[in-house]
Amino acid sequence: MKDAEPCPCGTGLPLTACCGRYHDGEPAPTPEALMRSRYSAFALGLNDYLLESWAPETRPTALPDDDPTQWVHLEILDHGEDGDTGRVHFRATFREGRRWGALEERSRFRREAGRWVYVDGEPSVTRLKPGRNDPCPCGSGKKGKACCVRG
Ligand SMILES: [Zn+2]
Ligand SMILES: [Zn+2]
């Protein structure tokens, strides 16, 4: 992995200057930063980080090592914090082969010993049927046929 690789969360910053710092152990300063770093960890397959940043009572025992889902785009719709609780409303676009979908969730976070952790949320998944002439669902701003939507 090159240092200049853009962060999957879409800030336009290099991974090492964005979510990579939190993956390397620096505490995420806000629920939104933690949410972004968890999205990036899903995109990069950093299962250890995902489990570490999950509240113990809702944490799964394991995550699949070979998840075929590719996460392609993140939008933060709303976020906020109140003391040691936080919330983030986001929409994440993914593809599994030629199938596309969007996961929208209002997530809850909690700060424990100075570190934000993901508690739970109410996810809803919508199937997307991107057209070749529609804007690409990856958020590139190009038409689908000139980007990820081929064939
Ligand atoms: Zn990032
Ligand atoms: Zn695309």
Automatic annotation (TrEMBL):
How is this protein named in the record? UPF0225 protein HHA04nite_03890
Q: Give the matching Gene3D superfamilies.
A: 3.10.450.50
Query: PANTHER family attached here?
Result: ADENYLATE CYCLASE-ASSOCIATED CAP C-TERMINAL DOMAIN-CONTAINING PROTEIN, UPF0225 PROTEIN SCO1677
Query: What is the organism field in this record?
Result: Halomonas halophila
Q: InterPro entries, alphabetically?
A: NTF2-like_dom_sf, SEC_C_motif, YchJ-like, YchJ-like_M
Per the record, the similarity remark reads: Belongs to the UPF0225 family.
What Pfam families is this protein classified in?
SEC-C, YchJ_M-like
Ranges where the YchJ-like middle NTF2-like domain occurs: 30-121
